[in-house]
Amino acid sequence: MSKTFIEIPRLEHVYRPIGERVNDCSEVEATLTAEEVQRLSRRCQNCGLPYCHAMGCPLQNAVPDMNRAVMHGDWRDAWERLSETSPFPEFTSRICPALCEASCCLEGEGFGATNVRQIEKKVVDTAFANGWVFPRKPLQRNGRHVAVIGGGPAGLAAAVKLNEAGCKVVIYDRNEKPGGLLRYGIPCFKLDKALIDRRWQLMEEAGIEFHGKTEVGPDVSGSFLLKHYDAIVVANGTPVPRDLKVPGRELSGIVQALELLGGQNRKNTGEAAETVVSGFGKDVLIIGGGDTGNDCAGTVIRQGANSVMSIDLMPKPPIERDVHTPWPMWPYKLRGSSSVDEGLQRFWALNTLRFIGENGHVTGVEVVPVKWEFAPNGKPSKFTVAGPSRTINCGLVVLAMGFLKRSREDVLASLGLPDQKNVLIAGDAAWGPSLVVRAIADGLKCASQLI
Ligand SMILES: Cc1cc2nc3c(=O)[nH]c(=O)nc-3n(C[C@H](O)[C@H](O)[C@H](O)COP(=O)(O)OP(=O)(O)OC[C@H]3O[C@@H](n4cnc5c(N)ncnc54)[C@H](O)[C@@H]3O)c2cc1C
Fold first, then answer.
1. Is residue 248 assigned to a domain?
2. Are 393 and 272 members of one domain?
């Protein structure tokens, strides 16, 4: 057994210097050299039972094969293996939490996982730089027409697979450009939107049509689609954000995360002249301590916020992996983020009682500390008040508490579609809020049911 995983340590952080990155909206991650990545690939043990491939990655990327090809400097072969299962590795290699790494055997043995995401990123960037990425055109058309509702990762993945199989695919999206949350949710400092444009162009060259600014419901009816297409893939995500209905919610200066994030992304890419929401000069309070909260923090830091703090009702996760999520499961534990390094202060186990305001605008939030009890499976089950309330002063509140999952019946009814065999639902719309890699995998799976 090779001992390279001891000689070569896992690379934990690949961020650009803070002083540099907070002054721009470019990706926070630094670019590694081919030599650095090749060195990291040598840590992979090419396990007989590759959990990364079979259990971790929803796309079932052949991770050890890709790593081995990189180790031998055969970037073209690495690309062929990666692109066999993954239609958009340029996205996942930037924003995936890397379920593959969590299930890496080296992680399980305490040596730190192979840096699969960084390797994947170098492989796909090398492929584009060398002109190895081509439109995935069908050999011949099969005469079938499929409408895809929603151009997020699930819809795009379904479209690529259906088109490759010969179907004529039209994507309808209420936004002007495709990408869904990749474009109008995830900040530019995590994913450069030029990468979505590049992929969009390849998809158009392959024959996929995109109809932007077309909302199914008001602009095109479900019955129109049923009449004109052989099948419909519904991939319209989870558009309804969770709200916080406590006294004072009507005050101005309380916004949903996507108003902030979408507005900033649109400004960065020139789709809008100004942002809808700005944290400039303000003390910003984010309610919700998850990934979306971190994205909001990084955004207001770049806008010039005075301070930024997040609070969460849930208890602080443990520093080390919780015993209830042993390897190779995705570990429940406290995670760092680029925004924490940039100045976000996080607080847990605080319940929001009310918003306080002056002249109709929010000036603070009254919170109370809570104590959680845990169920036998380790999940927080109920809380009790654990101290006196206090006020957090702020000039902007961002709600980042996730999105509501809808039932299949509700999703279809909202689009005026019947529940029948040729109408399939994919991605977040089917499973509730999840991850880009899961949405892509589900889009592909959904498409294969129609081929
Ligand atoms: C702020 C934020 C950050 C995130 N960060 C990450 C991350 O770093 N890594 C990660 O893996 N996941 C992340 N996620 C989750 C990830 O973005 C989603 O799981 C994923 O985008 C779901 O893909 P989808 O295609 O199912 O839906 P979406 O991406 O939501 O796409 C749905 C599309 O449907 C369109 N649509 C909706 N209704 C209609 C209609 N009636 N007619 C036409 N079009 C319609 C929308 O405009 C949208 O383009 C994040 C989510 C958020 C909110």
1. no
2. yes
- Measured in Å, residue 429 CA sits from the centre of ligand 1 at 9
Substitution candidate for ligand 1 out of 176, 236, 260 with most atoms within 8 A of CB = 236
Distance 107 CA to ligand 1 centre (A): 30
The total of structural domains in the chain comes to: 3
Residues of the chain with pLDDT > 90: what percent?
A: 98
Ligand 1 mean position, distance from CA 241 (Å)? 12
Q: 126: which 2 tokens?
A: 């090398």
Q: Please indicate, yes or no, if residue 150 is contained in any of the structural domains.
A: yes
Reported as a single tens digit per residue, the pLDDT across 335-358 is: 999 999 999 999 999 999 999 999
Among 347, 393, 401, 354, CA closest to 369: 347
CATH number of the domain where residue 41 is located = 1.10.1060.10
Residue range 171-228, pLDDT digits in tens: 999 999 999 999 999 999 999 999 999 999 999 999 999 999 999 999 999 999 999 9
Of 210, 201, 128, give the one whose Cα is nearest residue 172. 210
Nearest to 257 by CA among 339, 379, 335: 339
Most ligand 1 atoms within 8 A of CB, residue of 175, 181, 232 to mutate = 181
Q: Which helix (H) or strand (E) holds 256?
A: strand 254-256
Out of 382, 399, 416, a domain closes at: 399
What is the rounded CA–CA span in Å between residue 183 and residue 265? 7
Q: Is the residue at 136 inside a domain?
A: no
- Please, which pLDDT band fits residue 2 given cuts at 50, 70 and 90? confident
| Cis preceding linkage at 328, omega within 30 | yes
In the reported structure, the alpha carbon of residue 383 is separated from the centroid of ligand 1 by a whole-number distance in angstroms of 31
Neighbours of 217 (CB within 10 A): 14
Is 245 within the bounds of a domain? no
Q: What is the CATH number of the domain that holds 165?
A: 3.50.50.60
Q: Domain of 55?
A: 4-129
Q: How far is the CA of 91 from the centre of ligand 1 (A)?
A: 13
Q: Ligand 1: which of 29, 171, 186, 259 to mutate, judged by most atoms within 8 Å of the beta carbon?
A: 186
Say how far residue 300 (Cα) sits from the centre of its chain. Answer: 19
Pair 270, 371 in one domain: yes
Check: CB of residue 107 under 8 Å from CB of residue 329.
no
- Tens digit of pLDDT for each residue in 45-75? 999 889 999 999 999 999 999 999 999 999 9
Residues having CB within 6 Å of any atom of ligand 1: 95-96, 149-155, 172-175, 180-182, 185-186, 190, 215-217, 235-237, 239, 257, 261, 291-292, 295, 415, 427-429, 433-437, 439
At 65 the pLDDT is 98
